[in-house]
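From the methods appendix. Each design record in this collection lists the discretized structure first, followed by the designed amino acid sequence. Records were kept in a plain field format so they could be parsed without special tools. The example shown here is representative of the layout used throughout.

RECORD:
C-ALPHA CELLS (249 positions):
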C-alpha cells in the first residue's frame, strides 16, 4: 500500500467509490460488523471491480492512523493534478456563475487537504495553485481531503499570475484576502463569477498575485489573533459565498 493513501469513514469512502472509483485500489471493511451502510459500500466496490477485504478492527485502526474509520477504509491512489491547458474546458462545462479557489503557494499538506475537502462541500468548480513552492496531491493531502482530491479538479499551473489574467479575460472577478484590506468579506457581493484567492501560511499573497486581484477583502477579527489558518479562512470565505448564492446540495 506504499503508493496508496487511506481514506477513512463511511461518507468519505462512499464519495471515493462513487466519484473516483478508478483510483481506489482496495476496500477494507470491519469483519463481523453488521451495518447496512458497510454492505452498500461493498456493493459499490464490487460493481466497480474493486477488491473488498474483511479485516479486523486493529488493522483498520492502524491504516486509518487516528481517523474515525467507522469500519470502512479505502486505499486510494494519489490523484493526478490537472494542468493549465485544462482550464478552459473546465470553465466551459460550468453551469451558472463559477466559484473557484486559488491558493498561492500553500505548502502544508494538511492545509491543502482541508481546503480540498471544504471546496468539495461548498461546490467549488476548481482549485488552482502554482506548481512550484506549493504542495501537490501527496498521499497525505489525499488522506486529509477524504475523497475530495478525486472529486474537485485541482489544477497546478506554471504561472499563477498568468492564469489569473486568463480568468479575468473569462469575466471572473478575483477577490483576494488580506488582513489590511479596507473591504469586509460580509459586505462583498460573492454571487457572481468569482475566484477567491488565499495566500500562503506564512507570507500571505505574493505581490504579483495581490496586484492581479480585482478586490481585496478582510475577515472581521474580534479577538487577539492576527490571522486564521488558510484552510479555516478558505472555509469562511467559501461558505459566505454559498450563503449569498443560496446554494443547496
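DESIGN:
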Amino acid at each position: 500500500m506504499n503508493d496508496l493513501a487511506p481514506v477513512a469513514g463511511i461518507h468519505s469512502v462512499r464519495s471515493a467509490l462513487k466519484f473516483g472509483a478508478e483510483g481506489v485500489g482496495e476496500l477494507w471493511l470491519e469483519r463481523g460488523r453488521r451495518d447496512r451502510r458497510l454492505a452498500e459500500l461493498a456493493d459499490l466496490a464490487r460493481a466497480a471491480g474493486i477488491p473488498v477485504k474483511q479485516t479486523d478492527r486493529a488493522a483498520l485502526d492502524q491504516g486509518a492512523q487516528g481517523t474515525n474509520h467507522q469500519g470502512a477504509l479505502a486505499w486510494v491512489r494519489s490523484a493526478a493534478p490537472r494542468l493549465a491547458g485544462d482550464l478552459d474546458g473546465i470553465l466551459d462545462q460550468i453551469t451558472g456563475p463559477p466559484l473557484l479557489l486559488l491558493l498561492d503557494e500553500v505548502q502544508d499538506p494538511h492545509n491543502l487537504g482541508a481546503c480540498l475537502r471544504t471546496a468539495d462541500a461548498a461546490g467549488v468548480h476548481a482549485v488552482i495553485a502554482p506548481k512550484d513552492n506549493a504542495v501537490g496531491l501527496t498521499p497525505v493531502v489525499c488522506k486529509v481531503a477524504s475523497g475530495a482530491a478525486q472529486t474537485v479538479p485541482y489544477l497546478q499551473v506554471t504561472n499563477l499570475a498568468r492564469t489569473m489574467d486568463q480568468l479575468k479575460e473569462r469575466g471572473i472577478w478575483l477577490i483576494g484576502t488580506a488582513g489590511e484590506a479596507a473591504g469586509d468579506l460580509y459586505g462583498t457581493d460573492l454571487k457572481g463569477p468569482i475566484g477567491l484567492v488565499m495566500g500562503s501560511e506564512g507570507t500571505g499573497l505574493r505581490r504579483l498575485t495581490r496586484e492581479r486581484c480585482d478586490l481585496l477583502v478582510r475577515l472581521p477579527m474580534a479577538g487577539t489573533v492576527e490571522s486564521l489558518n488558510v484552510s479555516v479562512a478558505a472555509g469562511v470565505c467559501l461558505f459566505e459565498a454559498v450563503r449569498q448564492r443560496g446554494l443547496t446540495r
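APPENDIX NOTE: The two ends are 34 Å apart (CA to CA).
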